[in-house]
Prior knowledge:
The structure holds two protein chains of two kinds. By secondary structure, chain A is an alpha/beta fold. Chain A folds into two domains: about 1-15 and about 30-125 and about 255-320, D-Maltodextrin-Binding Protein, domain 2 (3-Layer(aba) Sandwich), CATH 3.40.190; about 125-230, D-Maltodextrin-Binding Protein, domain 2 (3-Layer(aba) Sandwich), CATH 3.40.190.10. Chain A has helices at about 1-10, 15-20, 45-60, 80-90, 100-110, 140-150, 165-175, 195-200, 210-220, 265-280, 285-290, 300-320, and strands at about 35-40, 65-70, 95-100, 120-135, 160, 185-190, 205-210, 225-230, 255-260, 295-300. In chain A, strands 1, 2, 3, 4, 5, 6, 7, 8, 9 and 10 form a ten-stranded mixed beta sheet that branches. In chain A, strand 1, helix 3 and strand 2 (about 65-70) form a beta-alpha-beta unit. The longest helix of chain A has 21 residues, at about 300-320. Chain B has one domain. Helix content of chain B is about 75%, strand content about 0%. Chain B contains 21 helices and two strands. Chain B has a two-stranded antiparallel sheet with strand order 1-2. In chain B, a hairpin with a 6-residue loop joins strand 1 (about 185) and strand 2 (about 190). In chain B, helix 12 (about 275-285) packs antiparallel against helix 13. Chain B is globular, with a radius of gyration of 23 Å. The model of chain B is unreliable at about 505 (pLDDT under 50). Classes of the chains: A alpha/beta, B mainly alpha.
Amino acid sequence: xxxxxxxLKSTAAIGAAGLAAVYxxxxxxxxxxxxxxxxxxxxxxxxxxxxxxxxxxxRKEGLISGSQVTNVGxxxxxxxxxxxxxxxxxxxxALMVGGMVMVGAIIANKSATKLDQVTPIARLTGxxxxxxxxxxxxxxxxxxxxxxxxxxxxxxxxxxxxxxGSDHILFGLIAKAAGVDPTKISYVPFAxxxxxxxxxxxxxxxAGISGYGEFAxxxxxxxxxxxxxxxxxxxxxxxxxxxxESGVDIELFNWRGVFAPPDISAEDKAxxxxxxxxxxxxxxxxxxxxxxxxxxxPLTGDAYExxxxxxxxxxxxxxxxxxxx
Amino acid sequence: METLTYxxxxxxxxxxxxxxxxCLLGTTLGTAIGVLPGLGPALTIALLLPITYQVAPxxxxxxFAGIYYGAMYGGSTTSILLNTPGESATIVTxxxxxxxxxxxxxxxxxxxxAIGSFMAGTIGTLGIAFLAPVVVKFALAFGPxxxxxxxxxxxVTVSAVLGSxxxxxxSSLFIGFVIGMIGVDLQTGQxxxxxxxxxxxxxxxxxxxxxxxxxxxETLYVASRRYAxxxxxxxxxxxxxxxxxxxxxxxxxxIRGAFIGxxxxxxxxxxxxxxxxxxxxxxKRLSKHKEEFGTVGAIEGVAGPEAANNASAAGVLxxxxxxxxxxxxxxxxxxxxxxxxxxxxxxxxxxTQANLVWGLxxxxxxxxxxxxxxxxxxxxxxxxxxxxxxxxLYAGILVFATVGTYGISQSPIDxxxxxxxxxxxxxxxxxxxxxxxxxxxxxxxxxAEQQFRRAMTIANGDWTVFYKxxxxxxxxxxxxxxxxxxxxWNYVQSRRLKGxxxxxxxA
Lengths: 325, 507
């Protein structure tokens, strides 16, 4: 994979690589380990940014001497996952970034390689979802929304990200909690956040579901109204109730975490868990999270493994209910 | 005027020596990556994102915007010279541009593309500065129903590239549909035509299809014919740049292209390809030299689409800067760069980050000037490429196409697809099927399908949405006129001619 990356850079052969190298900053602490970060997505997305932020923070804190980020994008991470396993099997200095989207993609794509084939290390960040409506919408509360949904789910089109993704999953969970058949809901998937936002601002749909960050600025100027957040508790600075408070017993974080390859030694695993614990406790990590509007929700080792199992089971069930798995 | 004050202030920021240097670096880098198929502005900017940890926000956005504009310039060069589009927005440029190059007018094609890009880029940037709020309002009025109608209008352009046989042209179109369907269906999340190959789940990149059908197919065709004929090296005919007549034919096309490209680029789901299709079809219809289209190459067919794609690049920045809506891959990555500075792009960006935004807009004007200065002298160098004897030239094209395709996602599967499509392209060429409709089908087919199904979901299956909304109805009417109009016109004309001939006999 390193070679591919190098080839891409040399293909550029125009200074892109040179620039990146010049600006990668000084390499510190020679005794600290070198880390391989594997991103099963194209550069620029959420997982990629997670890897780049990790690289920045870990180097700044002197926890690693440097890192090599490799991107193998495609199909919600299901193209990269098998490659990560075959290439890094047994290697203790590699981490793959992944998350809830990957869990959903593995189920929806009926992927042969699953997340139980890699070693869970840590959950890092999460982004809670927001249910919003255009300013002119008659819905003032979640109850209004749920009531309309119960009356006729086909008349409440909701915009969000790709089918089977976290937005769709949350909509399915809300419908199910309200006693509405999830296969009857009218979900309008858009490829990117921008397009879904445009549909909301243009009053094309009744409501929208996406990561809170996607809507934050529009909510500030009053173009959109938040009905509820999918967080576990009220969030500082956001004037909106949680779904739970509004009588819909749902909690959902679009989480991101890291995994080590299969068959690594217990010491290597413990070292990686410690590395992630040190990173998430650092001030530099807190700063990155604040800038990027990520909520830090660290969870490591066995607790993470347990959480992962539960989340996979829950997502599998709702995707089946939605008719996607 | 307030805008002018802001803009003047923006220029003082953009004219600082370091920012000028960033702009120069960005445009140069952009031109280079535009030339390579596969390595697009989105990927390049993503690779350069770590730079945001080191330099001021103004500098990095000026660099990124330079790359973005530069890529739009560079993409046309290989389209024209090698029939190998560097970017999806320059696929249409290859249609006439490469014909011109092969009939000895490569310099003129490159010049009209460069000057057209400059004109359209400037018009588009003026649009960002002065019209952004108005254009955004118009763009948001477009819902799925309107987009579908816009696609229907764009499908009319297929008639402009059908070639002599409608059956062959339409077969090609449907090949494009099938390729476009490959991958996970966005509306249901289910894979289609992937045959269990994970790499196909995200679909086939349009650049691979264009390079495979155009460049690889052409290379195979030339190779198969070599023993039968002599090397066809066409010397440059006439002046290196444009003749007076070529200027006269270009400038209107530039302006029309810019006015098609800017608003469609500003639409959240507009994209850069559709305006190039529309511009091409319009230029072909309006041209007084229809016989040059698809034969020796018509300069309008290069000037219009090139202007359209550059104006649409400016258009894309409108929803990004005014509403924080990322409507293209490049815009989305630029937005994530805003976030790593702790800046939240949104409707308040223009007021809270006035320095940054106006500095960026001013540097777009500068980038345009740098690009034309950079590109015009290069034309003399580029056309020398065409003097390379055919075997070496085509071997070079093949290498270039392969490396570029591998650069898209470093997947060997992509290379297999490229050569497979090359073989299909060769057969199509051999049996006289036009390849352009396949590309149009591949881009428009899935877009039209998605928008149609979205519109149906929102309207709960009520198909009257397409003609009950005035905007949608207008677009459908335009499409109908575009499709049926010429036939009715011809029919009326022939009736009138018959009538005249019949007249003397009546007397």
